[in-house]
Design a protein that fits this description.
two-stranded antiparallel sheet
């Protein structure tokens, strides 16, 4: 019993001591070197899960194509004077909404990467010039 416990403990500790950390993917530090603007539309997405990160990356890419921006700014000021004291209050509400709607054909994603310091999953959504051409040919053949 004692011998099997020691073996278990040794294997458990060695797993943590000798395990290789998850290496950073090439696109993590500077994705423009991996996905240059001349060849790709690419954006980084982040989220709690890989699926959240994909959704975020796709929404970042959608902003390239079509977006509607609405902005509202409202300010309310009130002042109350009683005797020798003045009480002022200012309330500023700044609201910006961005809406995008686009159908992506040929959108690809990198492998997800969990970035421990930020506790989030990162992924890149990309669409290459080649996939633009293929999507255009597919759309023409449907018509």
């Amino acid at each position: 019993m004692k011998k099997s416990f020691i073996i278990f403990l040794f294997s458990f500790i060695s797993t943590f001591c000798f395990a290789k950390p998850n290496p950073e993917p090439d696109w993590f530090k500077n994705y423009r070197t991996v996905f240059p603007n001349s060849e790709y539309l690419a954006q980084r997405g982040s989220g709690v899960t890989a699926e959240d990160a994909k959704t975020d990356a796709a929404s970042q890419l959608a902003r390239y194509f079509q977006s509607t921006v609405s902005a509202n700014l409202s300010t309310t000021m009130s002042s109350i004077t009683t005797g020798s004291s003045i009480q002022e209050e200012t309330l500023v509400i700044d609201e910006i909404n961005v809406t995008s709607e686009v159908e992506f054909i040929g959108l690809e994603f990198t492998e997800s990467y969990y970035y421990k310091p930020e506790k989030e999953t990162l992924i890149h959504g990309k669409r290459s010039e080649e996939s633009f051409s293929k999507a255009g040919r597919k759309n023409k053949s449907r018509n």
